[in-house]
Amino acid sequence: MPKLAVLGAGAWGTALALQAGRAGQAVTLWARDPARVAAMAAARENARYLPGIALPDGVSATADLAAAVQGAELAILAVPVQHIRAFLAGLPAAAPPLVTVAKGVELGTLLLPLEIIAALRPGHATAVLSGPNFAREVAAGLPAAAVVASHDQALRGQVGDLLATPAFRLYGSDDPVGVQVGGAAKNVIAIAAGVVIGAGLGENARAALVTRGVAELSRLAVALGGRAETAAGLSGLGDLLLTATGPGSRNFSLGLALGQGRTLAEVLAERVGVTEGVATAPAITARARRCGVELPICQAVADLLAGHLTVPEAMGRLLSRPRRDE
Ligand SMILES: NC(=O)c1ccc[n+]([C@@H]2O[C@H](COP(=O)([O-])OP(=O)(O)OC[C@H]3O[C@@H](n4cnc5c(N)ncnc54)[C@H](O)[C@@H]3O)[C@@H](O)[C@H]2O)c1
Ligand SMILES: O=P(O)(O)OC[C@H](O)CO
Fold first, then answer.
1. pLDDT cut 70: percent of the chain above it
2. Which residues bind NADPH (predicted)?
3. Could you identify the atom of ligand 2 that is nearest to the CA of residue 190?
């Protein structure tokens, strides 16, 4: 039976471990905290991140990273973007091909997930998996689709072979930059959509914002060497539709709370899981500025989160931009 490692046992890592188990693989799910591993092994569930969903027999948990990747054909990297660098420092040199599923841009370096891996592990085989996927729905076996992007066609096929089932449909792409930009930007735009709804600005405003959000992620993808049409796919518009409308989104719900007048500190203090758009907003706008691309919605979110703008000021700034052709 092929062995697959899932590195990071948050909501998405756990859901993908379940999915790989369902696809027939022997899965080792790595978590850094031995106490959590022991609790998962005893209860056969990840009570912190995915309560109420049983881990099947084919999924075993470990806190031993070397053992997790030993003999694995593939490793899914499911730690949040801001922790990828620290995680990679402890990963054995002989690790299998890495498939990152994180969505964001690293603060400071302004790198996308595959760029972080390339900087630390030059030449390592990599792919990115992204799309409109709430962890809980995938874990429950509900139908979903995602895209696997890599310049390595054989690796794209291998990821599909090891992870796809009829209910989890995987498409391929040779535009990893476009796919990563979509995944990163949609989290920031989803915060903006939540603000709009929380502040009572209406569905017209949300639809306009989501559509102009696609224009933003498309512009940035092209500037970074990706393709404009990727923005209309699962990792762009598809994920934006889910995240900007689904109340289950952490990014949308954070924006919703801000729009209702709560503070960022209050909202984050109540959360267990990561809200990637918070760190990615300043990082993606800085990356865009570096290549001369304007991201007005993402910039408004970054300024709002930093406390430089109020919600009415952010909306006023977006609405008073000069008129231009679409
Ligand atoms: N949850 C979803 O529905 C979903 C779906 C698709 C993609 N994603 C993306 O997947 C990534 C992970 O999201 P999640 O929902 O699983 O997050 P989460 O907050 O549920 O879990 C994060 C996991 O990373 C671990 N972690 C944090 N810092 C670490 C470090 N330095 N080293 C090792 N492990 C560390 C945490 O212990 C935790 O297990 C994010 O980029 C997210 O945007 C999430
Ligand atoms: O809950 P969110 O906002 O992190 O979104 C989760 C996934 O990225 C949706 O595809």
1. 99
2. 12, 32, 49, 103, 135, 250, 274, 276
3. 3
Q: Is residue 324 part of a domain?
A: no
Question: From the CB of 250, is ligand 2 less than 6 Å away?
Answer: yes
* 292 located within any domain: yes
Segments forming the whole domain that contains residue 212: 177-319
Q: Quick one: pLDDT at residue 247? A: 86
Measure 325 CA to ligand 1 centroid, in angstroms: 39
User: In the annotation, is 186 catalytic?
Assistant: yes
Interface predicted TM-score (ipTM): 0.98
Residue 104 in tokens: 């964001």
146 has binding-site annotation: no
Average pLDDT value over all residues in the chain:
97
CA distance 194 to 46: 28
Phi (first) and psi of residue 46, to 5 degrees: -100, 90
Q: Using the mean position of ligand 2's atoms as its centre, give its distance from the Cα of residue 249 in Å.
A: 5
- Does the structure show a pLDDT above 80 at 97? yes
The beta strand positions in the chain, using DSSP E, are 3-7, 26-30, 45-46, 50-54, 59-62, 74-77, 98-100, 126-130, 144-149, 168-173
Q: Is 249 annotated as a binding residue?
A: yes
pTM of the complete model = 0.98
Which CATH number characterizes residue 298's domain? 1.10.1040.10
Distance 121 CA to ligand 1 centre (A): 21
